[in-house]
UniProtKB/TrEMBL annotation:
This is Lytic murein transglycosylase. The keyword RNA-binding does not apply. Residues 1-25 form the signal peptide. One of its GO terms (molecular function) is peptidoglycan lytic transglycosylase activity. Residues 32-239 form the Transglycosylase SLT domain. One of its GO terms (biological process) is peptidoglycan catabolic process. InterPro entries: Lysozyme-like_dom_sf, MltB-like, MltB_2, SLT_2. It holds the Pfam family SLT_2. Gene3D superfamilies: Bacterial muramidase. Keywords: Signal. The lineage of its organism: Bacteria, Pseudomonadati, Pseudomonadota, Alphaproteobacteria, Hyphomicrobiales. It comes from Rhodopseudomonas palustris (strain HaA2). The keyword DNA-binding does not apply.
Length: 272
């Protein structure tokens, strides 16, 4: 990006932040810089500081690769359960999951007492989403991803909300700007929370004053349990297909094949 364009964009953001009139919903499509200026004004009125907005959105550009991936990935869950689970739950991952159940037994027990979600479900989700925090949790700049998706008119309202939520994560001090890297829809952390879910369900379970879903295993697992509890998880109940707990997992992922894979993996972890 040229210095002139950067200067013009910084000016647009600054002018938007100084505007006294109430911000209206940013319009998708059209000029990207004008869209970012409108989103910046909306964020400022939501209480996000000018410094955070400028650091996050100053100089941001759309990413065509994000849109291309979004259009391709819609067929991800078109496989049968047998086809899908064969690629996600192998002997190595089951062995690692069982080791995680043992390593974090005390933590998982405390979480189950508070939220009612059994350890094997949390470890199954953790393993599927990021290979227990050891795998790829995304390397894309979250603000560029979300700005791109919000500007695209197919789901602009959804991603405008996610963009504002991502700004609030930094504003709250939960993550630094450097940590705001994630996947192709802006998912963050070891169990891949969308920013709005991060704000809504995030739990500071290690007691350090921040919800850190990138580095804190207690926060990661407790927040995942809190999401399921809030979605209607019933302590002590079955989680097989057709049960209320299986339906509670819709808040995690609506794809039937994915929820069946979570349940299958959980059963394998406890030898059922």
């Amino acid at each position: 990006m040229s210095k002139l364009r950067l200067a013009l964009l910084s000016c647009a953001i600054g002018c938007a932040l100084l505007a006294a009139a109430p911000a209206q919903a940013a319009r998708c499509g059209g000029d990207f810089n004008a869209f970012i200026a409108s989103m910046s004004a909306e964020a400022a009125q939501a209480g996000v500081s000018r410094d955070v907005i400028s650091e996050a959105l100053g100089g941001v550009t759309p990413d065509p690769a994000v849109l291309a991936f979004d259009r391709r990935q819609r067929g991800t869950f078109n496989k049968t359960f047998e086809q899908y689970v064969a690629t996600r739950v192998g002997a190595g991952r089951i062995k690692s999951g069982r080791a995680m159940l043992q390593r974090h037994a005390s933590l998982l027990s405390r979480i189950e007492r508070q939220f009612g979600v059994p350890p094997q479900i949390l470890v199954a989700i953790w393993g599927l989403e990021s290979d227990f925090g050891k795998g790829d949790i995304g390397k894309l700049p979250v603000f560029r991803v979300l700005a791109t998706m919000a500007h695209d008119c197919r789901r602009t309202e959804l991603f405008q909300g996610e963009l504002l939520a991502a700004l609030k994560i930094v504003q709250r001090g939960d993550l630094t700007m450097r940590d705001m890297v994630g996947a192709y829809a802006g998912e963050l952390g070891q169990t891949q929370f969308l920013p709005s879910s991060y704000i809504k369900y995030g739990v500071d379970f290690d007691g350090n004053g921040h919800v850190d879903l990138r580095h804190s295993v207690p926060d990661v697992l407790a927040s995942t349990a809190n999401l399921l509890k809030t979605a209607g998880w019933r302590a002590g109940g079955s989680y097989e297909e057709g049960t209320p707990n299986f339906e509670a997992m819709r808040e995690w992922n609506r794809a039937l094949v994915y929820r069946k894979t979570i349940a299958y993996f959980a059963d394998q972890l406890i030898g059922q």
